[in-house]
Amino acid sequence: MRHNHINYLILLLFVVFFFKVVDADDQLPPQTTWQTSLKDMVFGNDEIFDGKDIISLETPYRALDAAIVPIKVKFNKIQDKNLYVKHITVVVDENPSPVVGKFSTFLKTGSADISTRVRVDKYTYVRAIAEMSDGKKYMVQNFVKAAGGCSAPSLADMDTVMTRLGKMKMKFLHTGLKGEVNKAKLVISHPNFSGLQFNQLTRTEIPAHFVDSVSITQDESKILEVTPDISLSEDPNITFHYMNSGGPLNVIVTDSDGGKFTKSWPVNQLISKN
């Protein structure tokens, strides 16, 4: 009887210890970097409101690959002339270059929902801050466990990377009639070197070389303008929406080395060709 009692106590202690460990692991750390310096550096004295009622941010809690962490920013309303999303700023608090990019959207965008992939250097908060047409800013954030993404080597060898540089694909995920909101995914072949990576053959540092602007238009109207930095992943991809007016989608991409790449697609294609 006494032996059973001891076993029961051991089991009870194990259960209590296990749940304390799980609970401690799930407790989110304080947002020190954002609160003490980063917020003021990026937005100054601007007031930023809790955005959970209008924005949702989807990120993995534990990323499978820190160099290509998927994120989705969604809104609970479409773009309306009375109130619409003008800018979305994506921030990764603990990255060497915290601002992943600024995504400017318009009435032509139809829906400001976007998705892309980012690099994460170490355990951090990832944020999406939306500036509305009335000037107010709203923020949501998630904690992501990932590390080493900013210095991770390229997925391809240098010759292959440079041969494909600037090539683009457009996948039309939903194409409707004129006046309807369409959905597409732009993929840009570019190493987006962060300046923190090493050539695996020569063991020398690779200079930063990254996409620094993306412009997407249709019928001379702006759909999306992006000003990214080194925290955007290799081979950047952006899923976006646009109010279809019938003409081709035109894309202009520039990079930090002065490269400029352009391409157009008719909207009736289901998937682009190289």
Provide a quick synopsis of the model:
The chain is an alpha+beta fold and 274 residues long. The protein contains three helices and 15 strands.
Specify the overall morphology. globular
Quantity of strands, as a count: 15
Q: Which range best describes the helical content: under 10%, 10-25%, 25-40%, 40-55%, 55-70% or over 70%?
A: 10-25%
CATH-level-2 architecture: Sandwich
Low-confidence region ranges: 15-25, 270-274
Order of strands side by side in the largest beta sheet?
A: 1-8-7-4-5-12-11-14-15
Largest sheet: 9 strands, mixed
Number of helices: 3
Plain-language structure description:
This protein is α+β, with helices and mostly antiparallel strands and 274 residues long. It contains three helices and 15 strands. It is globular. The protein has one domain (29-265): SoxY domain (Immunoglobulin-like, Sandwich), CATH 2.60.40.2470. The termini are far apart.
